[in-house]
Amino acid sequence: MTQPWNPDRYLAYADERGRPFVELLGRIPAEAPATVVDLGCGPGNLTALLRQRWPGARIAGVDSSPPMIERARATDGDIDWQLADVADWRGSADVIVSNATFQWVPGHLDLLPRLAARAGQVFAFQVPGNFAEPSHTLREDLAAEDPYREHTRGLARPSSHDPVTYLQLLQGEGFEVDAWETTYLHVLDGEDAVFDWISGTSLLPTRAALPEELFERFAAELRRRLRLAYPARNGQVVLPFRRIFVVATRA
């Protein structure tokens, strides 16, 4: 599931991307865990919040992107940063959290029970639930057109499930589960703000697959379509963003 992540591009909307993590963290009932792990920690800016919440715990962050782990290590040397794919991770912790990562893992419903089994107290995660929105569908539709489709066939496509699916899955593993969804309305500056947003995440596989000159052509057309789908008003656009949250606690 390794993607060509760019920490600077990803952090361009750090506050907006961080809000779901804060909401998730606020619903975790663990009081004094000894160990806490952040799976898919990215550049580590949100992992640092775990230490604020549990100052006595040993904190670790795991990510498959070398640039992301390099950035994390440069900004906080007190956290145990580990370069690994979450699908291959074999560790354990009292609390395991993950923010906007599992949507990139194909068949992650099979992975979640295995990860939950390694959580001594709580397994908590958040995934986007907006894959039917124009910010995704316009990119996918354009990538399926000529002359792009010969380069974009078989690209990784992020996906997630409804809250009830996750709730029932982890209830079946013996957990008490709190599952919910929130739709954020992000007010972003600039008529191309939605394009800039996806440039740090879901557009990355397409960018990596296309030759540079072809990507520039693709990007110009995608910007045009996104402007129509998300019209600017007074220099700002509104990006609705549905997020799905799950907190599974050992009964």
UniProtKB/TrEMBL annotation:
| Keyword field | Methyltransferase, Transferase
Return the Gene3D superfamilies for the record.
Answer: S-adenosyl-L-methionine-dependent methyltransferases, Vaccinia Virus protein VP39
Question: What protein does this entry describe?
Answer: Trans-aconitate 2-methyltransferase
Q: Which GO terms describe its molecular function?
A: trans-aconitate 2-methyltransferase activity
Query: What InterPro entries does this protein's entry cite?
Result: SAM-dependent_MTases_sf, Trans_acon_MeTrfase_C
Q: Which Pfam families match?
A: Methyltransf_23
Q: Which GO terms describe its biological process?
A: methylation
Task: Name the CDD domains for this protein.
Answer: AdoMet_MTases
Q: Tell me where the transmembrane regions lie.
A: none
